[in-house]
Every structure is written in C-alpha cells, then in structure tokens.
Design a protein that fits this description.
The chain is of the alpha/beta class. The protein is built from 11 helices and 8 strands. Bound molecules: cytidine-5'-monophosphate (C5P).
Length: 239
C-alpha cells in the first residue's frame, strides 16, 4: 500500500460545501475520506456518492449497533452507496456481526462490486477501566483484554478489521494476524498541536506499531496549507 493510501482524512465539518472543497483539494493526497455522524447527519448519504464521483473513497463512521437484521440491512445500504469502509460496535455481538458479514457478501456479489471493508469498534477510547466496572458492570476484565477478545470475535464473524487506539495495535496485530485491518486515530505529527487528543502517536510510530490506516483530521484540515501538511505526513511515512 502506498503511504498516501494509509491516510484517512476526518471530514469533521457540517456543510457539504466545506466537505467537498476539502475533497477537491486533498483527493490526490489522502487515501480515504471519513464521513462521521456530524457530516452524514447534516447533509445525508448523497455525500458518499459525491465524494466517490470526485475520485475519493469513503469511510462511513456511524458505528452501527442494533439487532442483527437491522445492522445487516444498514450494511446493504452501505454497499449500495459505494462506501469503502464502515464500522459497527463489536458490543452488538456475534450474531449481529455475522449477519452483517453474510449480507455484505451476498449484496456485493449481486452488485458485482468489491465488498466494503467492515471495521469493529471495541471499547471506545473515551471509556476507562472505572467506567467499565461501574457503568457497564464488567468487573473482571481489563480493557486491553476485552479489546483483544472482541477483535478476535469480530474477525471470527467475518469483520475485516478494527478501529483502535495506538496503544492497542500491537496486541491486536499479534492476536488477529497480518491481514486484519487496523485503523487508528489519535495521530499527531511532531509538528502539530495535540488539541483534545491525550495519548497521541505520530503517523510513523503508528505505522511501525502495525497500523494499516491512520485517521487524521485537524493536523491536516486546520493547517495553513492542508496539501503541504498531507505531503509532510506522506514523507514521514515513506522515510
Ligand atoms: O482532528 P483529529 O485528528 O483529532 O480527528 C480524529 C478523528 O478520529 C475524529 O473524527 C474523531 O472523532 C475520530 N476518533 C478519535 N478517537 C477515537 C475514535 C475516533 O479521535 N477513539
């Protein structure tokens, strides 16, 4: 994979104009555009088609979590939309992930298109050990162990990868092998501000730890020149 293909640009804006202008500017410098709840819910699913028409691949970050039939149906919609990647909560369970994987296989065959890359979200990085115990009543598990168990379970169900914190890359790579896709946010080049991200990793460190894709937003979007910022990151990854 080329260095630029590893960059997933977070389109954390709420207007189509801002999103499309970033896509036009950066389509030649990043691999995937991430459309999350903010943008998707502001402008609707057509944004996926429009980005595709401009030559960009799309990661729809809506983290599905529902009964198996509903998540499978939502996955079918993602395949029809031409989405490149999307995610679900592993907490939705085995049956949910399996139903999704089966449905995507069938629908992609019917459409004669490659299957979207499905990613599992394990334990959100905003949840700490105390919350796991006090609010989710998971008393006998360390977060790191739960993350790896859920990654393995997702893989067994036919989910193609995970979104995880840089701290978890090593353990997941070891447990799930070289073909399992690992996507990680919390990325900050040495020259950019941390903003609200707490445990950060440079793009190069994330790559060395075994990440396939890095989700990067503000270090590129808020830079004086987004193209220059993306090029600097590509250079770091290629070094
Ligand atoms: O601007 P920044 O590079 O911090 O953007 C990171 C993106 O990754 C945002 O869209 C954020 O919602 C997402 N994300 C994250 N941490 C997680 C999961 C997703 O920063 N644990």
């Amino acid at each position: 994979m080329q260095a630029q293909d590893r960059i997933v640009l977070a389109l954390d804006v709420d207007s189509k104009e801002k999103a499309i202008s970033l896509v036009r500017e950066l389509a030649g410098y990043v691999g995937v555009f991430k459309v999350g709840m903010q943008l998707y819910n502001s402008v609707g699913p057509d944004i996926v088609r429009e980005i595709n028409e401009l030559g960009g691949k799309v990661f729809v970050d809506l983290k599905f979590h529902d009964i198996p039939n509903t998540v499978a149906a939502a996955g079918r919609v993602m395949a029809r939309l031409g989405c490149h990647m999307f995610n679900v909560h592993a907490a939705g369970g085995r049956e949910m992930m399996q139903a999704l994987a089966d449905e995507l296989k069938q629908e992609s065959k019917r459409l004669e298109r490659p299957e979207p890359i499905t990613l599992a979200v394990t334990v959100l990085t905003s949840i700490n050990q105390e919350q796991l115990k006090q609010e989710m009543y998971v008393k006998d598990m360390q977060i790191e162990d739960l993350v790896v168990r859920w990654a393995i379970m997702a893989q067994e169900c036919g989910i193609k990868g995970v979104v995880c914190s840089p701290q978890e890359i090593g353990a997941i790579r070891q447990a799930c092998g070289p073909d399992f896709k690992i996507v990680t946010p919390g990325i900050r080049p040495a020259w950019s501000e941390a903003n609200d991200q707490k445990r950060i990793t440079t793009p190069r460190q994330a790559l060395d730890m075994g990440a396939d894709y890095m989700v990067i937003g503000r270090p590129i979007v808020k830079a004086g020149s987004p193209v220059e910022a993306a090029l600097k990151i590509i250079n770091e990854l290629e070094e």
